[in-house]
Amino acid sequence: MFKHLATATSRHPKVVLIVSAIFVIVAGAVGSLVIPRMSSAGYSDPGSDSYAAYDLLENEFNSPLPHLSIAIGQLGTSDAADDEAVAAQAEKIIADFKAVDGVSKIDSYWSLGRPVQMKSTDGSLGLVLLYVDAKTLDKRNAVARTIIDSTPAQIDGVDVIVSGAGGTYNGINKQITEDIKFAETISIPLTLLLLLFVFGTAVAAGMPLFVGVSAIFGALFGVWAISMFTDVSVFALNLITGLGLGLGIDYALLIVNRFREELGRGKSVEDAVAETVHTAGRTVMVSGIAVGLTLSSMIMFPQPFLRSFAYAGVSVCVMAIAGALVPLPAALRLFGRRIDSLRIRRGDLTPKDDGIWSRVARFVMRRPWSTTIVTLVALVTLALPALGAQFSQVDDRVLSKNNPAAKAAQLFRDNFSSNESSPIDVIFTRDVSPARVARVAHEIAQLPEIVRVETQSGIYTSEGFQPLAGVPGWPAATMETDSHVRLVAISNISSRTTAGMNLTHELRDLAPDSLVGGAAADYTDSQEGIARQLPAALLWVAIATLIVLFLFTGSVLLPFKAIALNVLSLGSAMGVLTWMFQNGNLQWLTGEYTVTGALDTSSLVIVAIVTFGLSMDYEVFLLSRIKEEHDAGSDTTEAVALGLQRSGRIITAAALLLAVVFAAFVTSSVTSIKMLGFGIAFAILLDATVVRGLLVPALMRIAGRYNWWAPRPLRRLHDRFGLSD
Predict the structure, then answer these.
(1) Which of 205, 210, 215, 641 is the most buried (most CB within 10 A)?
(2) What local confidence, expressed as pLDDT, does residue 352 receive?
(3) pTM above the 0.70 mark?
(4) Is the dihedral of CA 642, 323, 239, 310 positive or negative?
């Protein structure tokens, strides 16, 4: 297959390059059409009880959750909310909000009869709950963005503070967009400089850019096609860009390096291309398959947000393989020895058989046990903090304290004793008796986290029951339909926290025949959905890795060793992330952020799977050269030394270049993005140096000839279906 591919690309290199360029341009043009189609939602579990409750609120009760919470008054002035001048100004401001297209309803402290629960603790602010008549989160956020952008912090001496779910999301999304643009202005120039240094010539350095662009534009086309059948998250664009450029660089490094090596052995350009595609091309194919299968595991999670990363990741892998195996060999055939034109740095550009990496390997293999023990102790020590990891989801606390959205959310926490903007809905079918509903409402009201419970007949508190008649501020929302009965609980805790999760479980225990909805329930179901599917995703990654590596190496031991080492390096990275971002250490390195005592679950999943995939990328790079030397007749020690020498530079250079791309995200002022960037950068550098440079040679020296062992039936299976040739 690979020889035929080399022949095809070498015979008409100009035609191949022209056709490839046309495809990339068309794919990029068509793929760009996906951007308006992408969704900024997808964090919820569509199969959960909370999602079902949300759907009922929207479609049956016609009572969506408030999208914006707005406080109006005079901060620091006691009882200002009851001042008639302030009230009059508040009504004018609310009238302006009502005029915004998409606003369906506004409940306020003043329109509902001035209930005490909608006034700040010092009476300085009155609460306004704004509802949006839009069926998608993107459209709701667009309405929220219009209001936020057009509302000053003070109007005629009256303070206006905009927060709530829409305000927080708008603040996070806006900040992420700005931060990514800034990160790209840092990473792209640095990446280009490093490419010039690593490749040594301007001509060679330009080749991975074409492969990277091919992967990015091709992946956009793939995601566009997928978007015809399902929702795709807009945040998948970040993975397409980062991973596309990263894999493009990785694979181009491998191909170009091997081409130079074959030229250095005196082969003709045509023969060098053929041997490069046959050897390094096969490695690229196996590596891309391994990475793609790893990334595909995210499709098992219920959240469309995470599944979108699977679509993007697999698309990138397919197009990166295609770019490295089709246009790149054609370019090598066309440029030939001119690949080393426009030289940037001095030194030998042709890989050597004896260098620092072979010396490291021989040093390690002379003392394999001591190296293994010391390295394992160090990595396990790094991993230990992960045992105390706590998990959460994104809320306003991921923003810097000076961010307007974060400041607004904090003002709400400081000034309002109850979480009016985030109600908890408990929905029963009409088969449940009124007495049962009343009993459940009473029991819920006794919980210390609950301020009150609203029902069709009145309000329950820990102190008793207030009938509907004469209750000021009774909500106009429907509490009963032909098929369902609803009660609304107001809590005094933040929804997306462990406390919110515990409260959700208490409510479900009190009312097992109900649907519990709201932000706290959504958070609970999302977290548990990830936890529920995580074993299946991990099993898929493990099985896929074992099969691919066995078919590649013919060994039983090497695939298990690869998984164990990947898990070890990943565990070390998770421990460091816990110590830093959960406990708040080393902020001088990462920049200041709010320490919440927990880690964002979705970001960790992405870090784990992307890191595992890239680690497998480097494992395949290394094993391919070791196996090649072993198959050529070298013993294990010599094969490892030569294999590490010929791949170590590539692996570390590729890891460094990719680390620069992701490390730029550390400049973000959004904690989850900062953590994601640091986590991936640290993990791949750790894996490319300590794990591949020290542990792999040491363990392979200890295993000796058993590295290549397989039982006879599996050996026959490999001989027939293996990916070695």
Answers:
(1) 215
(2) 62
(3) yes
(4) negative
Rounded to 10 degrees, what is the CA torsion of 127, 133, 135, 141? -50
Closest C-alpha among 616, 13, 7 to residue 277: 7
| Predicted confidence (pLDDT) per residue in 40-74, tens digit | 667 788 889 999 998 888 888 877 778 899 999 99
CA gap 326, 346 in Å, rounded? 30
pLDDT of residue 96: 92
Indicate the DSSP class of residue 277: I
d(CA 627, CA 514): 60
Q: How many CA atoms lie within 13 A of 184 on its CB side?
A: 11
The Cα–Cα gap between 576 and 379 comes to 10
Separation of alpha carbons 541 and 543, rounded Å: 6
Give the tens place of pLDDT for each residue, 554-602.
Answer: 899 999 999 999 999 999 999 999 999 999 998 988 888 888 888 988 8
Domains of the chain in sequence order: 1-37+200-351 (1.20.1640.10), 62-170 (3.30.70.1320), 354-399+526-725 (1.20.1640.10), 423-517 (3.30.70)
Tell me what the mean pLDDT of segment 650-676 comes to.
88
Query: In whole angstroms, how far apart are CA 619 and each of 263, 439, 624, 697?
Result: 25, 61, 8, 12
Tokens of 559: 């695939």
Q: How far, in Å, CA of 646 to CA of 279, rounded?
A: 13
Helix pair angle (304-325, 282-296), 10° resolution = 170
Separation in Å, CA 417 to CA 132, 155, 193, 450: 25, 25, 54, 11
